[in-house]
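step=predict obj=Putative lipoprotein YiaD n=217
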Amino acid sequence: MVKPRYLLLVMLLTLSSCSTIEAIFGISDEPAVQDDSRLAAENQQLGTEIADLRQELSVLEGDIADQKSQEVARLEAEEKARLQAEQAIPKDRLWVTVSFRSGYMELTKASRRALKRLAEKFVSKPRTQTLDVRGYTDDEPIGGYAHSRHTPRHPYKTNLALSKARADSVAATMISAGVPHNIVHAEGFGATHFVADNKTASGRERNRRAEVHLVNK
């Protein structure tokens, strides 16, 4: 029977003939080195991918900023165009002028027909305007000039009252044709705002008038 100390001696001799313990047991540091190299390569690849993603994100953020800037510019341009269009539309526009006979406040049949057609046109589509009817007279005093007196064909004592009656006559005709009464306003201005020379009959005829104005709210 082999004694234990001889077995131990044999093992020591065997170990002494090997260069390293790693050689005896097949242990080597090469796999560890390979793992480190692989990890380093993977880290480098990951770093490259992250850098690429950051670059793409930067480009994307730039594109979004450009699109936002363009959208803001477009909206500002549209708002500017809208304001310019509103400013281009007069707030107060003369629509029609109706003439009156000397000393009269009543409309002629032709004037009534014309006003009714205009009223029907006005109510044929939605509107945001109101109607201002402004009455005027020539400079002839009530009852005529001193050298050509006549009996007036109306009950009014002043040109201001006569001009208001003329405006009321036009407004009533428009309302009877369908224009809502709450958007029609009538006012008289008397012998003012002449559009022609009162020294001639044709000039005075032009001054005896009522004007219908479209007024934007």
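step=describe
The first strand starts at residue 92 and ends at 99.
step=end
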